[in-house]
Amino acid sequence: MPHPSRAKAIAILGTGSDVGKSLVTAGLCRLLHRAGIRVAPFKAQNMSLNSFVTPGGGEIGRAQAMQAEACGILPHVDMNPILLKPESHARSQVVVQGKVFATLDARSYFTRGRDSRLLRAVQESYERLAAQYEVIVIEGAGSAAEVNLRDRDLVNWTTVDLADARVVLVGDIDRGGVFAQIVGTLDLITPEERARVCGIVINKFRGDRSLFDDGVRFLTERTGIPVLGVLPYLRDLALDQEDSLDVNARTLLPFTADRVNIAVLLVPHMSNFTDFNALAEEADVSLRYVATCEEAAGADAMILPGSKTTLPDLAYLREKGFDRLLLDHVQRGGELVGICGGYQMLGRWIADPDGVETGGQDAGLGLLPVTTLLARDKITEQIEAQALHIQGATSLPVRGYLIHMGRTDRAGLRPCFQLLRRQGGIETDGKESPREEACLDGAMRPDGLVWGTYVHGLFDQPSFRRAWLNRLRSRKGLSAVPLETSERVNQMRLKAMDRWADHVDQHIDLAPVLAWLR
Asked: Which of 397, 374, 366, 237 is closest to 308 using CA atoms?
């Protein structure tokens, strides 16, 4: 395969999923950016329900948006040309260069292998980036030794070869078996691939680092490849994570009388759980993800999150008894918020006549008198808005993004937000059509206890977030917390990338990587 790029490239590959490739990539991107190098991230194929809308209205993985921020540049669809959004255990919506390409089951997708359209998208996107930047930091996917998919791989060695990249291999010591992870991976790749590996990183180390000195010596002697560093586990890192596994850390947080207790209902195909990260970092908030009605006991507010398969996730909520729980919660004066798919579930019914997701029709939870028709056209926009009728937050600014394939009739209810600026478009049959003129979003019950919106990223704005939390505090008889408290949360989130980059710089010897990049 030719190497048409002008940029130098380093690839961060892993021994498996969730070993920390995204964060190591982001940390390296930040360090290179701080050194004055024009750098961009790239992940050929990503599988995630946490997505982001670029300024151009394209959809990419959330991790690549975070990595672009680390590089000091705006996110672009070329940074993640293929995004797979799972709709079931074996079927995904395939987004190519920001737009919906097809919905395929796993066998159909992998049977296509290096389909000319998919491979061409990867090549085109990489070449455009490589022509604009000095360095590309590539993130791999899953394991670098997926031998059963080798002839159909687009994201690991195909991309490494395209970019003529050197490779850093990341292993996760926290899950155990790190020696087998590293040695086994290197044993299963080809000699040509192994020759590209310039270093090994051990991630998520806990405890006394000196106790692993023997491990470093063993790996260096056994593989002949230097261990560039051992990264200690860094607590309280306020960076948006890509994998839904991270919500498990918040499933059992205690609810207390002196805090605002928020329950986010775990649905099987939850999307964009990053909507709640800023809320979870507030000092006066206990936020937990709940899988049973018992775990939700004591919540002041409940949130129905986004979903990639709304009707099946609605059926799941009924099966678990959440429909009765939510009704009781609201009748007792608790607040209920639905975001995107969660907003749709709150209504009277949802219809999917064209099989946009799974097909069919079902009654909603009936807590808002709205109705939703799923349609093939997909709205992907960045927005700026103003809160309209949310008590305590009226007229406050909101920024966020829309990613949905449904139209909801609010049935005369008051809208939640006025959309002041919209950037992106509506995609129909693979083409972008002009935006609708409608500039109102969401619906709210007259008593204000139940409301829904299509806006993702809603709670990232400190003024809106604090106003909403203070309203919940007032209902509990608690005094208001100053806005400055929430502004400090946002400042901490802004500083988190540099904190992580400093951590990477302290514990990893990047000399072999920098030597290659020079």
From this structure: 374
Strand partners, 285: 260
Report which DSSP code applies to 518. -
The count of other CB atoms within 10 Å of the CB of residue 475 is 15
Evaluated on CA atoms 483, 487, 488, 490, the torsion sign reads: positive
Active site residue 293: no
Q: All domains of the chain, ordered by start, with CATH?
A: 8-238+495-517 (3.40.50.300), 259-477 (3.40.50.880)
Residue 261 carries which DSSP code?
E
Helix axes 483-507, 462-475, angle to 10 degrees: 120
Residue of 340, 404, 416, 507 with catalytic role: 340
Length of the chain: 518
| pLDDT < 70 regions, the chain | 1-5, 110-115, 240-252, 425-438
- In whole angstroms, what is the distance from residue 288 CA to residue 286 CA? 7
| Angle made by CA atoms 146, 75, 100, in degrees to the nearest 5 | 65
Task: State the pLDDT at residue 394.
Answer: 82
Give the residue from 43, 264, 259, 44 showing the smallest Cα distance to 154: 44
CA–CA separation, 19 and 505 (whole Å): 18
Catalytic residue chosen out of the listed positions 269, 329, 456, 507: 456
Number of helices and strands (H, E) in the chain? 15, 27
pLDDT in tens, 93-149: 899 999 988 888 777 776 665 667 899 999 999 999 999 999 999 999 999 998 888
| Closest to 345 (Cα-Cα) out of 319, 370, 377, 380 | 370
Q: Which two tokens stand for residue 512?
A: 């072999």
CA distance 490 to 460: 8
